[in-house]
Structure formats: C-alpha cells, structure tokens
Amino acid sequence: MYAIIATGGKQYKVSEGDVIKVEKLDAEAGNTVTFDQVIAVSDDTLKVGDAVANATVSATVMEQGRYRKVIVYKYKRKTGYHKKNGHRQYFTQVKIDKINL
What we know:
The chain is mainly β. The chain has one domain. 0% of the residues lie in helices and 64% in strands. It contains no helices and ten strands. It is elongated and about 60 Å long.
C-alpha cells in the first residue's frame, strides 16, 4: 500500500516505514506530524479525488537538518563581473508511520 502526499510544493510517493526528507516543517524531533493533502492511495486499486478526501498520513519527525552547500556562480565576460554565493536548504527527515483512509 502506498500514498502520494503533497508538502512543501512537492509530491512524494510514500509507504509505511519509509524515511523521506521534506521541506522544513515546524516540528521538533520525536513529534508526530499529519499530512492532510493526500492525492492518491493504492492498495489493489488506485483511489483519487473524493475517495481520499478524508485520508491522512501520519509521520514521526526524526531530525531537522540542512543539505550540502550548493555553489551559485554568476559571471559576465569582459566586464570583470563575478559573483559567488552558497546556499544550504533546510529539511525535515520524517518516518511514515501509518496511512489512514
């Protein structure tokens, strides 16, 4: 059984027991979060729309962290223009506990 959830502007295909990294959530490690935007659920057949309107996915927050640094380098030739920036995106690692229909 799997579900497709939406969080942080992205969609994730999850099953019970999966560990995924999502965009930063306001929750501390050990807390339980519930994803209400469930797009589809499949056990034998795919259910979408009104069939999953009340479905939720429960997950436990494992850790808060940051990804590796991504270097952004801008350059324009012949003008002496160079600009270097770094960015580290925040994430929340969650473990999927239960898919509730």
